[in-house]
Design goal:
alpha+beta, 2 domains, 5-stranded antiparallel β-sheet, two-stranded antiparallel ribbon
Length: 154
């Protein structure tokens, strides 16, 4: 399983794993051990987790990087739904987030998704995703070097 297989489905709470594709939608299963269910593409929109970004002062910050920061932080996630406490925690984790465009409801979703990943023991996917990117970059660099050396040898 990779982080790109995890989906956010409009109208359904939490993160979902894509089980199968159908012509008119997807069969998904919630991370909390829900039953498989069909989500129609007419009623729902599907967003892969790795495509979600958080608004910042500069460019968007991928949600995967936010999750890594949360995992590596020594600060505990605040219990309860107090908007001020959640905002303070999020500001500590992502100080560059755009305060005007990132709402309290967005912060609650991010914390809920992170908790779901933690409960399902899927935080390891964050590192695997980074390793795949690193190995892909390494392969691209090697192929460019091989092309350069073959041109020099001619």
């Amino acid at each position: 399983m990779t982080i790109s297989e995890l989906l956010v489905v409009t109208g359904l709470s939490g993160l979902h794993l894509m089980e199968a594709k159908r012509e008119n939608g997807l069969i998904v299963r919630g991370l909390s051990g829900d039953k498989k269910r069909f989500a129609s593409s007419r009623k729902h929109m599907f967003t892969p987790l790795d495509n979600i970004t958080i608004y910042t002062d500069q460019e968007g910050l991928p949600i995967v990087d936010v999750f890594r920061r949360m995992r590596d932080s020594s600060t505990a996630i605040p219990a309860g739904g107090d908007g001020k406490a959640l905002r303070d925690y999020f500001t500590e984790i992502v100080p560059e987030h755009d305060v005007e465009r990132v709402y309290s409801s967005d912060i609650k979703k991010v914390l809920f998704w992170f908790t779901q990943l933690m409960d399902a023991d899927l935080l390891r996917l964050l590192d695997e995703d980074q390793e795949k990117v690193s190995s892909t970059d390494l392969e691209e660099t090697r192929s460019k070097e091989d092309k350069k050396s073959s041109k020099e040898n001619e």
